[in-house]
Design goal:
By secondary structure, the chain is α+β, with helices and mostly antiparallel strands. The protein contains eleven helices and four strands, in the order ααβαβββαααααααα.
């Protein structure tokens, strides 16, 4: 089991680097076509190259802050949320990892997420709904699940995915608006095949990016559940927490669509979760935990 966890961590680190490289290339191709179409010349190409490299680097270091801000997360007061802090500290000791920054989100829906780039630069956030609804053992299960995402380096991959998909979607949206309403650019003297390839790139890139998002393996959630059970030695605690989350059936109003994959359960209570969600069916997760 320990070897399996180590291999999963290594795979997540490797996938993070591959994701960054892929998105840099995709963003550069998009930016190159846009600058060529708008006749920006060499300066435009250099600007495109700078943007394609700078944005992923910015996302790597700042995406956790963006996710926390967009969700309305606030630092959890040590006195008011003493049990939350105590549980996080206890699980961190069991996992032999640094304590992440602890945040609270004012929302009645029971949910939680972790974000960051590595165990030394990570944060965990829980909604007020989850903190008020869970008993200590259930809260330990949820916290252990989120700390497992940190320990297994899932947070790096998922947080980067959220930020980089946003970049590609914004670029495509801006160009399509300019293409439709902003003039002809190089359209008149562009070989039709080149224009078709360029437009296909612009139109399909956001779709490809979404496919990457949906392709984030559901095994990451199963792995986090299994790691949480190993840390707490009580898989029933997390199973019970998931049951309460399912029974509550409340959408997390503060959640951003792009950050949905970071949460412990689908924050939008997606009716088509089995088809499009990055989360596996909650009933299947409960079944696996109860079988441990």
């Amino acid at each position: 089991m320990r070897v399996f966890f180590d291999e999963a961590q290594a795979a997540n680190k490797r996938n993070s680097l591959l994701l960054i490289a892929f998105v840099i290339i995709l963003a550069f191709l998009m930016a190159y076509f846009i600058t060529w179409y708008l006749r920006l010349g060499t300066s435009g190409i250099l600007l495109a190259a700078f943007f394609a490299i700078a944005y992923p680097l910015f996302s790597y270091y700042a995406s956790d802050s963006i996710v926390l801000a967009s969700s309305g997360a606030k630092p959890a007061d040590g006195q008011q949320y003493r049990q939350f802090h105590n549980v996080v500290e206890a699980i961190c000791i069991a996992a032999n990892q640094p304590k992440p920054r602890v945040y609270v989100i004012t929302d009645p829906s029971p949910n939680a997420f972790a974000t960051g780039r590595d165990p030394q630069h990570a944060s965990i956030a829980a909604t007020t709904g989850l903190l008020s609804m869970m008993g200590r053992q259930e809260l330990e299960g949820v916290v252990a699940h989120e700390l497992s995402h940190i320990k297994n380096y899932d947070i790096r991959f998922m947080t980067l995915t959220v930020a980089l998909i946003g970049m590609i979607s914004i670029m495509a949206d801006i160009f399509l608006r300019m293409f439709m309403f902003g003039g002809r650019g190089n359209r008149d003297r562009t070989p039709p095949i080149f224009m078709l390839v360029g437009l296909a790139l612009i139109i399909l890139s956001p779709i490809v990016a979404q496919v990457i998002k949906f392709a984030i393996s559901r095994q990451r959630e199963y792995l986090a559940d299994a790691t949480a059970a190993e840390l707490t030695r009580y898989p029933v605690g997390l199973a019970s927490a998931l049951k309460k989350i399912k029974e509550a059936n409340l959408p997390t109003k503060t959640a951003a669509q792009a950050a949905a994959s970071l949460y412990i359960s689908d924050p939008f209570v997606n009716k088509l979760a089995n088809i499009f969600s990055t989360h596996p069916p909650i009933d299947e997760r409960i079944k696996r935990l109860e079988a441990m």
